[in-house]
Each structure stands twice: as structure tokens, then as C-alpha cells.
Design brief:
It is a single chain. The protein is of the alpha+beta class and 324 residues long. Helix content is 34%, strand content 23%. Strand 11 and strand 12 form a beta hairpin. It starts with a helix and ends with a helix.
């Protein structure tokens, strides 16, 4: 909820990062939280720091070369978080990054924006407020959520994306993250499509059929709400999307491999669609269909933000074991 609130009230990327780091330090009760961004030459540059150290501003612009053995550099190379629970006795030393003299543990997490490494957030705690392995899944999820919001913020500055659509993504991401049941998380996903021109269908697998769980159609009627639980033959849909993050399908009437799934959207005058498999573990549990009525075939760039929402959806299901 804090990330959503910050996103709404800030218009600049720098403000968004500053306020997030500030509130994240308070939330974790850390002695230091810093944010390094990756430069074009793969060096890491410190652009934000929240700490009680004197002359805080003097640490800004600290740069760590890409060939450094710093833990933060290893996070950048592997794009995986690293937790050090006893800094003093760990072989990886902070010789270039900013290390608080009272720090006992440190946790560095990659920030991924639009599927690429944007930067690293480093959190340091004292012995009494040690970050433990039990904290790792939750913190990783918060940082992943931050990366999605940060990507939206950057996009908002580059292009005049309709504010109401952007707000729907913010609200949907927050609702998915905070959901405590599967209906709540599905409603969060549906929320993202409001004020868009896409038709959305969320389907659950059931042997050779798929069952409609949620539907959004900007030109739909109240009858659409009665279709929940509607069963459709899926043909070879599962096999076609099994090893893909997204499958784009054009010229719908000419396709014969997807059972009655395409017919469902053809009746709604859709011309093309994207199939996105949802895999909270390793197997497909659900399929999200994003369909377009435009004569111009749907493109992956158009639905990138929805794909990012699916990543949060999957992460939420796998971590929290959402109840039915």
C-alpha cells in the first residue's frame, strides 16, 4: 500500500526512488538502506542512501566497478539476492560499497525493471534487528513489486500513458500483492484491464477443458458475470503454451488447434490474442487470455505491463499458498 501511495503522489522517478527507500528503511527498521543503479559500463553507482551516518550526502555517487568482488557486484552478475548474516566473519568484504560500522547483517536484492537489471537495493541491520532467511521471500517480493512500479513510473515519464490506465495497474498490483484468497487475487488481475480496450479471460485447467474464472470486456454486458464456471474445450492449447511466456495468435478464424477457446473470443469480434500461461510452481495452473478487437495484431510490447502483473500473481501464489 505504501508503494501505491508513493506512486500516486510522485511524478518523477527520482522522487519515487527516494521516498520508497526512505519508507522501506522505516518499515524494516534498518540502520542503512542504499540504492545502486547499473550504468552502461556495468559499474554500480550509489544514487540514494538512507542512514543515520553523518555526512550522508558525501556517500552519493560512490561507484563500484563491475570486476569488484563486492557482494553487491555478485548480485548484479547473478541477478539473485545475497544475504550475509554475519558480515565480520564473512569472506566477502565491503571494501568499496558503503558499510555501516554497526552493521551485523546485510541483504542485497536486484531490482528488475522490464526484465532487465536496473539496480541493487542493499539493506543493513544490527545484531538485534538481524535480517534472517525467514525474511528473504517477503523482502524479495516487495522489491519485485517496487521494480514493477518503478518501470511504470519510467514509462509514465517517457510517454503520456493514460493516467486512468496507469492507476488501474497500480491498484491491481497492490491488490494482487495484498490478496488473501484466490478470488481476491483474480479480481486484482481483472482490475488491471479496466479502462483498457482489451478483452480479458482467466481460465483454469480441467483435463481437456478450461474453465472461465474471470472475464472483462469493455463492451460486455451484465450477462458476462453469469459465464463464470463456463467450460470450454481447449484442444492443443496447453501444449502450445507449455514452454512459452506468451503466445501471440493472429487470424483467429483460421486457427484450428485451440478447441473452442478461440471461438469464445471470435464471437466477441476479437481479431488477435495473447495466451499467457500461469505457473506458480512448474506446471500450468491457469491461462490468461488478452484479446484485441483491433485489426492491427496484438504485440508483446502492448501487454508487457500485464505480463509483469502475471509475474507478481505467480509469485504471490507460490509464496503464500493462497487459499481457494
Amino acid at each position: 500500500e505504501s508503494i501505491l501511495r508513493i506512486s500516486i503522489r510522485t511524478s518523477k522517478t527520482e522522487q519515487f526512488i527516494h521516498q520508497f527507500i526512505n519508507e522501506f528503511k522505516k518499515f524494516l527498521d534498518c540502520i542503512l538502506v542504499s540504492f545502486y543503479i547499473r550504468q552502461d559500463d556495468d559499474t554500480l553507482k550509489l544514487i540514494e542512501i538512507e542512514t543515520d551516518l553523518p555526512q550522508r550526502e558525501s556517500y552519493l555517487k560512490t561507484t563500484i566497478p563491475s570486476n569488484s568482488l563486492e557482494p553487491i557486484t555478485q548480485v548484479a552478475k547473478l541477478e539473485q539476492s545475497i544475504l550475509i548474516t554475519d558480515i565480520e566473519n564473512d569472506e566477502n568484504k565491503y571494501s568499496m560499497g558503503v558499510l555501516h560500522p554497526k552493521a551485523f547483517s546485510t541483504f542485497a536484492v536486484p531490482v528488475i525493471v522490464n526484465e532487465s537489471l536496473y539496480g541493487i537495493i542493499d539493506m543493513q541491520s544490527t545484531d538485534e534487528k538481524n535480517i534472517t532467511r525467514n525474511d528473504v521471500p517477503f523482502i524479495n517480493t516487495v522489491i519485485k513489486l517496487f521494480g514493477i512500479f518503478l518501470g511504470n513510473q519510467i514509462t509514465r515519464e517517457k510517454v503520456q500513458f493514460p493516467l486512468e490506465v496507469l492507476m488501474n495497474h497500480y491498484v491491481a498490483t497492490s491488490q494482487i500483492f495484498l490478496a488473501k484468497s484466490k478470488p481476491e487475487i483474480q479480481e486484482g488481475l481483472r482490475k488491471a484491464f479496466e479502462n483498457s480496450s482489451f478483452v480479458m479471460g482467466l481460465f483454469t485447467l480441467n483435463k481437456n477443458n478450461i474453465i472461465l474464472n474471470s472475464l472483462f470486456d469493455p463492451y460486455g454486458t451484465s450477462f458476462d458475470q453469469t459465464l463464470q464456471g463456463f467450460s470450454i474445450s481447449s484442444g492443443n492449447t496447453i501444449e502450445r503454451v507449455q514452454n512459452k511466456d506468451v503466445l501471440l495468435v493472429t487470424d483467429l478464424p483460421a486457427q484450428t488447434e485451440f478447441g473452442d477457446l478461440l471461438s469464445f473470443f471470435i464471437r466477441r469480434e476479437c481479431q488477435s490474442l495473447a495466451l499467457i500461461p500461469i505457473k506458480p510452481q512448474s506446471n500450468i495452473d491457469e491461462i490468461l487470455v488478452i484479446a484485441s478487437r483491433s485489426s492491427t495484431p496484438i504485440a508483446k510490447d502492448q501487454i508487457k505491463s500485464f505480463i509483469e502483473l502475471i509475474n507478481i500473481y505467480e509469485k504471490k501464489l507460490s509464496i503464500d499458498q493462497i487459499t481457494q
